[in-house]
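Sample entry (111 residues):
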Amino acid sequence: MVPSQSFRLVVFALLLVPSLAFAQAVPRYDAEGYCDQVADTVGGSYQIRNSCLQQEQSAYNGLKRTWSSISGRTSGYCDEVARSIGGSYVILETCIQQEQGAASSSPGFKY
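Predicted structure, serialized as tokens:
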């Protein structure tokens, strides 16, 4: 028995829903692990680790408020950038701000 076209469409839509929900959530990074690595590069400073965690938390909190308004193109690109250095919400937030700024000011080329 061959499934009807509408049945296949419904199944496809149901499979797509979790992907869309995931795309709307701020990515999960190991902020504590990231900040441990940052602190370890300067000798294991507790002050650096604590400051890093505060900055990561602040960036994450800001991203939670604005995530749904960020384009998929920008969020996907910046997530890759942030993951490439170990997963940092500060890097993710900064990348998004820079990408949004660049998108709103496209320079022209003049001969």
